[in-house]
Amino acid sequence: MPSPIVLIPARMASTRLPGKPLAEIHGAPMIVHVWRRAMEASLGTVVVAADDAAIIAAVRRAGGHAVMTGDHHQSGSDRIFEALGLFDPDRRHDIVVNVQGDLPTVEPETIRSAARLLDDPAVQIGTVAAPISRPEERTDPNVVKVVGSASAPDRQRALYFTRATAPHGEGPLFHHIGLYAYRRAALERFVALPPSPLELREKLEQLRALEDGMRIDVAIVAETPLGVDTPHDLERARALLAPRVETRR
């Protein structure tokens, strides 16, 4: 049987919101809210991979697992790969789910949707996307679009990821959500590859996998979770999470 592990990369350095993993949201650091969402997905062990002792301490106070990783990593995938080796040197876990540490509103079902794509043995990496409903996002280069070929209801095989408006013509566009499920062998292969030409051009690391011929499937979900990058995003997250916090109380 597959044995998933959920890894949440978190780093203190942020140009627009310094120290954001520890930003307070209704009495708990943001990273703890993300950890809780991942725990609610009930996929398996959840571990935060951090570069600062304060993040480690916050997660452990909440009852979670956390490991210290280097501060030299260029991407979240590199950070989770180091954490995987530190936490699971005996290779008990064969599926690795990467949940970004700045997604406090992510739904547990969204996390599960990425992992379920690996039920197909031909899929090496699973990810998620949501339909774009706001017209301004169709041309926003900060909104990454996935171009895919439908393989089943609410499922696509990824052909390309881009910051451009694509595909051209009438029809829906899909906002890629930076949440991934890797087969362990696929993650090892991915991090060993050098950055690819399209990756460098678009500044999207998932293109490295596509250029190397790896298969990425995409689950289509209803909504895009809020990524917290600015003080304004943080206030939006506090508003969105208020009903959930009141329910927990």
Characterise this structure.
The chain has 249 residues and is an alpha/beta fold. The protein folds into 2 domains: 1-106, Alpha-Beta Complex (Spore Coat Polysaccharide Biosynthesis Protein SpsA, Chain A); 108-176 and 195-225, Spore Coat Polysaccharide Biosynthesis Protein SpsA, Chain A. 32% of the residues lie in helices and 26% in strands. The chain has helices at 30-40, 53-61, 76-87, 108-116, 184-192, 197-202, 206-211, 231-248, and strands at residues 4-10, 24-25, 28-29, 45-50, 65-68, 95-99, 125-131, 145-152, 155-162, 174-183, 216-220. The strands form 2 sheets. The protein has a 9-stranded mixed beta sheet with strand order 5-4-1-6-10-7-11-9-8, with helices on both faces. A two-stranded antiparallel sheet has the order 2-3. Helix 2 (53-61) links the parallel strand 4 and strand 5 (65-68). The mean pLDDT is 94.
What's the structural blueprint in terms of helices and strands?
Elements: E1 4-10, E2 24-25, E3 28-29, H1 30-40, E4 45-50, H2 53-61, E5 65-68, H3 76-87, E6 95-99, H4 108-116, E7 125-131, E8 145-152, E9 155-162, E10 174-183, H5 184-192, H6 197-202, H7 206-211, E11 216-220, H8 231-248
Parallel strand pairs: 1-4, 1-6, 4-5, 7-11
Antiparallel strand pairs: 2-3, 6-10, 7-10, 8-9, 9-11
